[in-house]
Every structure is written in structure tokens, then in C-alpha cells.
Amino acid sequence: MIKQLISLFKLRIGVVMMFTALVAMAITPGQGLSGLEMLVLAVAVLISAAAAGAFNQYYETDLDANMRRTDGRPFVTGHFQKSPEWIILILMLLAIGVSGAAWVLNAATALYIFLGAFFYAVVYTVWLKRRTWLNIVIGGASGSFAVLAGASAVNPAMDAVPILLALVLFFWTPSHFWSLAIARHDDYVSAGVPMLPVVVGDRRAAKVVLANTVLLVGISLLPFFWGMGWVYLAGAVTGGGYFIYRNLQMVRNPTPKVAMGSFFASLGQLVLLLAGAIADVSLRG
Questions:
Q1: How far does CA 215 lie from the centroid of its chain?
Q2: Which of 97, 124, 182, 235 is most buried by its number of CB atoms within 10 A?
């Protein structure tokens, strides 16, 4: 049961969103949050992302059934039965997350948390995924809102660094998911989802991923010029350089195995970037 719930609510993604929000909070200048405020921020982002993830699976059961990567999800297998009660639970989780953030933190933080869930559940899942290869480009903004939520909890006005970090998440998402889409090309063809590799082919898609990653890495270096230190820069350069290297391999040989290497490199790049940001702020004081 626990394993099925983790899958249904996409808690791994939720934890990543929660961590990015906390990193953005930590690097934003201003009065620090209390322990309660940090807890509310973390839980609000996590359960709102979980609500969006569960809705994604509820809405996409037909697509998931046609993809090897997702045909074991609980609504597909029948472990959980689709019913209106699930929609009520999803809406309740979102309402608790957003209202809790508004009550304990501020309205801007609550708005960004809501927009993060809305962009993933409605903009990406309902409006775009089945219609256009731009699905993950526009819908991927959901990750950026987690950054803005964390920063606005400290200072709703924000400065350049959290805005740049939000841009990093915006450009990270296409490179991350298109690498996976190249690796799982046949799955998306079977499901009829117009991911970029399905529309233009794996080789051309790999070149687009490389160009996007170069832009992503370039943006990730900019916070160094707005006050972040050398530790942050080291994390950004190391993770970004490795991601570009894996992208270059994928351009030369866009096979599923190499594409999965690029996909995992995207995770490494994000972890090193966020860990570098936290370490940099901690060392400086």
C-alpha cells in the first residue's frame, strides 16, 4: 500500500520540489523563517505537488496503460479504483497546502504554490500533453513556481538570485524530460503523446536538448555575479559540465542507453547545483 501511495502521489518529484523551495528560501536575503514557517513551507509544497501528481495519474490512466514505464501505476493495475472520492482528496490536499501557506506565510507564497500545482495538473496534463511538443516547455514552469514560493516566503519582492534559479528550473525541465523521451521513444509513440523526439526524431531532439542545456548551464552560472560564492559556482560548473558531456554523447549516439545517461546526468546537475547553493550560503554564514 505504501509503495502504491508513493507512486500515486509522485512523492519523489514532490520531495525535489520541496527541496528546491527550501533552497530558494535559504539563499534569499531577508529575515529568516521560524521553524514552524519552514515546516509549513515544506509541507505545503510537498502536498500540493502530491495533489498535482495524483491528478496527473487519475487523468492519464489511458496513456499510462500504453507505456511500459507507467503501466504498473495503481490506477492502471486496478490497485486503486478511480472514483470521485479521489478528486475530493486531491482538492483537499491542494486546499490545505495553499491555505496553510497563506495563513502562516503570505499570499504570494500561497499563489506560487497553487500555480505550481495548476501548471502541472491542468496546463501540462490536461491542456498540452496530448496536443503539442511544447507540453513540457510550458507545463514545466511548475518547477519554477516552487523556487518562487520558497523565495517569496522570505521576501515577496525577491531579488535576482531566486529569479535566476527559477529560470534554471524552467530550462532544466525540457532537457530532463526530453532525454527520458528519447530513451522511451516507443512508449510515447504507443501512447500517442507528441513529445519532441516523436515529432522530430531522436537525433534532432538530442541536438535541441544540447542547445537547451547549454543555455540552462549558462543561466545557472549567473547567480555567481549576483552574490553567490565560489562553492555555488563549483557545483554549477561541475554538474553543468557533466550534463553537457552526456548531452554530447547523446547527440553522437541517441540510443536509449545513452539517453538514460543524459537523463540521470540532469538529476546530478540539479542536485549539485542545489547542494552547492546550500553549502555556499552555510559557509558564508
A1: 17
A2: 182
Clarify whether residues 20 and 122 are in a common domain.
Answer: yes
The grid cell for 77 is 493495475
**What is the DSSP annotation of 181-206?**
HHHTHHHHHHHT---HHHHH-HHHHH
- For range 180-203, the mean pLDDT: 95
Q: Is pLDDT above 80 for 271?
A: yes
| CA pair distance 142, 173, nearest whole angstrom | 9
pLDDT of residue 140: 77
Q: Note the pLDDT of residue 198.
A: 96
Domain check: are 90 and 108 in the same one?
A: yes
Tell me the C-alpha distance between 176 and 209, whole Å.
Answer: 8
Contact, 55 vs 119, CB < 8 A? no
Using pLDDT thresholds of 50, 70 and 90, give the confidence band for residue 285: low
Cell of 240: 553543468
Checking if the pLDDT of 197 tops 70, the result is yes
Residues belonging to the chain:
285
263 and 146 together in one domain: no
> Which domain CATH number covers 276?
1.20.120
- Give the chain's mean pLDDT: 94
Q: Which residue segment(s) compose the domain that 32 sits in?
A: 1-155
Indicate the helix (H) or strand (E) that contains 137.
helix 135-139
Helix (H) or strand (E) holding 246: helix 230-252
> In whole angstroms, what is the distance from residue 10 CA to residue 193 CA?
20
